């Protein structure tokens, strides 16, 4: 299905040679496409649908611009912009991983069934998962600090266990250590091991 936002998004991208954020795209599109404000009664579902339509249009444009004009459309979380003289393809592992992630996103946003089948409850679960991920990330960072570990060791269970045992031995109340410190070390250990 051809997305009705494509011509206006392309015009906006060409007007903003330094790129544009998705938020600014949405603001500009809402002025011209009033249907964007009537996609759902629930505000979170409406925002999801607005986002989906924009991303769908962007990924369709990304493919067609490259095939027809050899123009790259760069889509990141912060900025969307056209690149008229793209550098030669890079075969590094990081680039391959980025392209793989990008192709998964393109496949998701190209599937109209995702748009149609996503309901209010699905969006709520996505938001809950996102917010819990933020909280868990902060908790894990705090746990690393408590155990005096470098962030590069966040997934190294053996290093976490060794460091915990070393610190817990010194802080253990049976060895004259601080009971509160011992408890906080144990909590940090549990957080990082799960």
From TrEMBL:
Domain (J) ranges: 142-194
InterPro entries hit by this protein: DnaJ-related_N (IPR021059), DnaJ_domain (IPR001623), J_dom_sf (IPR036869)
Keyword annotations from UniProtKB, A to Z: Chaperone
Pfam family, one: DNAJ_related
Protein name: DNA-J related protein
Source species of the chain: Marinomonas gallaica
